[in-house]
Amino acid sequence: MTEFATEYPHLADLPLSETHGRKLRRIVTEAEWEKEFVDPDHPLEDSFAVDSLRSRSAGTWLDAIHAFLRAHHEYDGMMARFEDRESGDEFDVPLADAWGKEYSKKQYARARALQRQMSGGKRPSGGKAAPAWDDPVTVMLTLTASSVPDGDRLPPVEQMDAIHDAFSYGGVRDTLRNVMEYHLDLDSEQWGYWLQAEPHGMGTAADPDKDAGLNACYTHIHVGVYFDGAGFGDLRPVASEFERVIDKHLEVCDPAGWSAHDYDAIDDYLQEDDGCISMNADVGNLGSYLAAYMGGYTEDLLDKPIEYIAWGAVYWSAARQRTTRSQTVNQAIRADRCEQRAENEESGQVDAHGERI
After folding, report:
1. Which domain-ending residue is among 40, 75, 110?
2. pTM of this structure
3. Which of 40, 156, 252, 286 could bridge 170 with an S-S bond, Cβ 3.0-4.6 Å?
4. Residue numbers of the domain that contains 8
5. Which three-class secondary structure string do you get for 10-62?
């Protein structure tokens, strides 16, 4: 991938990780072997030499991109063959990884399903969903970390881990739960979140008028928080409660800095669309909103910007999830899918969602 080496030469030879014990895909690591001589068990036998692993280090970011694209290409045309137990007929199902356009389309469909379940709407199968919430509201939180926190550039896996670990294990997710259920007094089924990672500097290499910035190709996360706002009047005081989540992220994520999370610079959270806290009380198409805000590109991987490919190589190499959703959100998506199956004559399902266990 010569474009990455040309546009980002300072990143191409950067090791993916320097953290001892961090697991990576074997193909993106480099092994150092040493020869050892083994004495025989019996005196009449000759000694022999074996190669033993001395150490294993992470490959470069450029190496990871090559391996990532090769692995993605190998899925092209790959099929899985299954056999019907009753008839014995065989059928093929095309396989796809989580980096192609089909996966992006599926994520978009899930976002639309969430919207239908929470705010109502017509399903593709023809039925109409009753809204679960009276007044759905969306808050988008953006959490990131510097790639050069102390002047020295971090390997991309370390920066990625710092952000995700702060949310999952460092208390940021717990703080979000406390905001929703203690400070805003919502029940657990009255709110949910959708976390989506996205690269910094998307498309800047192809646009000379854009500034890539120090974090180009590195990751950040958007946490879409959805809740029923029917019990609130003015939403501005509600939005300010999410400052607690930003504060917790800054506390536990070492490379994170205030300049990228300066909510004091935001005049109105309901009018903001580019800050660390953005509230939207009227999302007409949640799928499109997520796609625009979270980098939901539906083109093929090779047609995406080089920043996306480089970023994707990091997640692929480290086998790290770039999307997570709360139980409430996943349950809503599954409910919509179940209803669509019940409305489709070819599915074989006749009971609507929740009618039979």
Report:
1. 75
2. 0.88
3. 252
4. 1-75
5. HHHCCECCCCCCCCCCHHHEEEEEEEEEECCCCCCCCCEEEEEEEEEEECEHH
